[in-house]
Write a structure and sequence with these properties.
By secondary structure, this protein is mostly beta strands. It has helices spanning 3-20, 107-110, and strands at 40-50, 60-71, 74-85, 92-105, 113-123, 131-142, 145-156, 165-174, 176-178, 181-192, 197-209, 215-225, 233-243.
Amino acid sequence: MSWAGRGRAALGAALLLGAQAACADNDLVVYSANLLQGQKELAFYGYDTQDSRSSLNGIGAYNFSVGKTFTPHWKSEIYYGEFDRFPGTSVYLSGYEFENTFHFLDAAQYGLDAGFVASYVYVKQPNQPSLFEFGPLLEKQLGHVNQRLNLIWERQTGGVDRQYVFRAAYSARYMIEMDHSTLSPGMEIYYRPADDAHQIGPMLYDEMRFQDKSELEWSLGVVYGANAGAPARTLMARAEYEFY
């Protein structure tokens, strides 16, 4: 299959999975600290859990967003549709999100890229508090190997629970340069102590470059529960179209 055909097939698979599944909040995604000024994006990501326990089976959602990088150090993104699903319920619109990513340190000078993400999550359901999330983003490129680490804290903006909830996400990939694309097998790890859920699993990433300087990035994978509190399997799909 040609690189263009592979991209169309992957995007179709991602959207098909997203139509059935999900992404509750942003827990299962690893952010990049790198920004490209002037770049715009249309993005989707989602996941769906599979487990023999009814309380952990079929949890999911899917998110759609638009964004733009205004400067070399600032990107703004709006999630205009965040949809959730829980066991025994159908998919519903849970809310919206306004997210900002900042780039502080450049690898050319400091040996790694470092940034910060801050977002406000408006929860649409009655009597449910909205959320504020923030934390540092670290990224290291060493030869063909790219590594990313996110440390995120979450706090309710209303309600009685004002404690900070911590989670961490890590990814590593081996980047294989091809004609007009970069195919990267890798892995992702998620540490979510508040949910008593720790997960790890393989991923496949692809970044496809077109003649008009636009790009299509997609990834597919599955993470497995590393402890009893996590779902047995979580299927994940992402697609992002970037252009100027």
